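Supplementary Methods, section 5.1.

A reviewer requested that the exact input to the structure prediction be made available. We therefore reproduce it here, unchanged from the version used in the analyses.
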Amino acid sequence: LSVKHAFLAYSLSVLSAALPAQQIPTEWEAKSRIASLTKTVEEIEAVLAKVDLERWKSAGAAEAYLTQYHEAKPQFGALRRNLAELASNPDRVGAALDVLLRFEAVDHYIHSLREASRKFDEAALADELDAKVGESFTVRDRFRNYVVELARDRD
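The structure derived from this sequence is encoded token-by-token as follows.
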């Protein structure tokens, strides 16, 4: 992750230069944002747990979708661990970048699995996943802003 950290740190510095400076959130506010993001991740995971892989197989889902479903589980676990680490040390830039990068990786899986659930599972499940992902945008944006402010403060 060191190359990714460097790239993300550079990206954040460019982004932070373009954004108006804001005060870094207090520890309580940071922990609140981290808790909100953790809840969002858990809610998305709960929806994905409803996926019926047997239905996907019988509907002709490509093996790649099934593989992505299985690969997503440890990614979500790692994201939850990164979030727990950050919650205990919310002022660590490296831990915040780990969460941001891990969420980007998880987001790739979410997008693909949303597509597969729409094609090979019940429409209601895909709609529920779409709704949870839609709800997550504000939480994720607030967290991204926190990381930018944290990086700016530590720079």
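Residues 13-19 have pLDDT under 50 and may be disordered. These observations are discussed further in the main text.
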